[in-house]
Design goal:
CATH architecture: Roll
Order of helices and strands: HEEEEEEH
Shape: globular
Number of domains: 1
Strand order of the largest sheet: 2-1-6
Number of helices: 2
Structural class: alpha+beta
Number of strands: 6
Helix content: 10-25%
Distance between the termini: 32 Å
CATH topology: SH3 type barrels
Length: 82
């Protein structure tokens, strides 16, 4: 995945949570733009125990090469048509 593709989703306003799909089959949700730090070749994603928080409990480094796709995460408000 190109850095610009990820950056476009992170900078979109209003921000829409999205999911990263990796080559090993794992997935990560990006729920807040404050929890992702994007570099040229990899990103650091903060993972919060409570999805509504912007303070992370742990982090993961992800090589952009291993991101195969990104999809928006349906939020409860969107699922209810609100």
């Amino acid at each position: 995945m190109q850095q610009e593709d990820v950056e476009k989703k992170v900078r979109q306003r209003p921000f829409k949570p999205f999911r990263l799909y990796l080559t090993d089959g794992s997935t990560y949700e990006v729920r807040h733009p404050e929890l992702i730090m994007l570099g040229r070749r990899y990103l650091v994603l903060g993972i919060a125990a409570d999805p509504s928080q912007t303070v992370f409990d742990q982090s993961v480094d992800i090589d952009l090469f291993h991101i195969v796709r990104m999809d928006y995460v349906e939020t409860p408000a969107a699922a209810n048509g609100q």
